Amino acid sequence: MIFDTHAHYNDESFENDREEIFARLSQAGIGRVVNIASDLASIDECLDLAHRYPFMYCALGIHPSDSAPLSEEILEGIRKKLADPRVVAVGEIGLDYYWDTPDREIQRHWFAAQLDMAREASMPVVIHSREAAQETMQFMKEHHAEENGGVVHCYSYSLELAREFVKMGFYIGIGGVVTFKNSKKLKEVAAGIPIEHIVLETDCPYLAPVPFRGKRNSSLYLPYVAEAIAGLKGMETEEVIEITEKNAERLYRL
Ligand code: NI
After folding, report:
1. What pLDDT does residue 57 have?
2. What is the pLDDT of residue 84?
């Protein structure tokens, strides 16, 4: 079944029909979902969802754009929660120089601290990186992220760099963007890296695939992403679903 490796069902846009969507998942071929924390408030929301639904796990960490209020004490609190059996990764963490706030020094500080936290806990990381390709790679190498592994989510860089992440043992997260007409670079990445290193993700409520582009996204639309990747690789959609599910199990050690 389809494994959604990156969702944000704690988002308020799901407030009125979260249960309805969840009830339809298994019939739509969606087996498991990892819900990913982003800001401070989302940490306990993600834990709560992962405890309530057997198909759901979570990743805990602070997104670079939300890293301004972080402190050592807060990070210590997150560190303790990593021991919860429903927590499968640290994330999403990284660098975002597209929105470019807070100051890069703050983003760098908490990215490094959370990379170290994940490595000490022997947990994979969920990396968010925008317009910060070389620096993200440099931080990951300096902090030996290859030892605990993880996924570069919503991958937006070149095929060449994707190959370097793959060489480090990382997975490449691909979602709705691969169905967009103008996503030439991501299509090249999907075609060019081994299927054994690709995982499916929604990043919902964001980035719905064609034909729902611009609408609220959910795991129910992932078959369109699997189909697009299958087309690019000359594979059957079912084969893509099966292999990426196994990849996600390895990624999150399930
Ligand atoms: Ni996300």
Report:
1. 98
2. 98
Backbone angles phi, psi at 55, to 5 degrees: -85, 0
Residue 173 bridge partners (DSSP): 199
| Percent of the chain clearing pLDDT 70 (strictly above) | 100
| Residue-level pLDDT at 2 | 98
Dist. CA 80 → ligand 1 center (Å): 22
Q: How far is the CA of 5 from the centre of ligand 1 (A)?
A: 10
For residue 230, the CA-to-ligand 1 centroid distance in Å is: 23
Strands lying side by side in the sheet with 30-36: 2-7, 30-36, 56-59, 87-96, 125-130, 150-152, 171-174, 198-200
Q: State the distance from the centre of ligand 1 to the C-alpha of 98, rounded, in angstroms.
A: 15
pTM above 0.85, yes or no: yes
Q: How far is the CA of 204 from the centre of ligand 1 (A)?
A: 7
Domains and CATH numbers, the chain: 2-252 (3.20.20.140)
Please tell me the distance between residue 36's alpha carbon and the centre of ligand 1 in angstroms. 6
CA of 127 to the centre of ligand 1 (A): 9
Cα–Cα distance for residue pair 132/135, rounded to 1 Å? 6
Instruction: Please report the pLDDT score of residue 58 as a whole number.
Output: 98
